[in-house]
Amino acid sequence: MKPYPTYRQREVLQLLMPGDWMPLLKLIPIGDRLLATLLQTGWIERSPDLNAGNFYRITEAGRSVFRTPSAYQVRRDGQGIAGSRTDGREASRRCS
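-> structure tokens emitted (96 positions)
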């Protein structure tokens, strides 16, 4: 499991950032696997009220991980990803 959310996970977390309970149907088309991953990591929680249906909200852990830089931002800045530049220079790109 990655310590940072993927693009799709970040998209779901962003929708839940206001902190209110949101029904599953109002979330973007979210698959069972993505939902299970978000619940397993503890970034979202399901409503404990079984009569309320499938309602979800973001947890404090989810807020924290959402505020961290994405993997792309870390790579672009050259901080901490294996194989990235750490001297502040951008790698040259070849255009075909």
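Helices lie at 7-16, 32-41, 60-67, 71-77.
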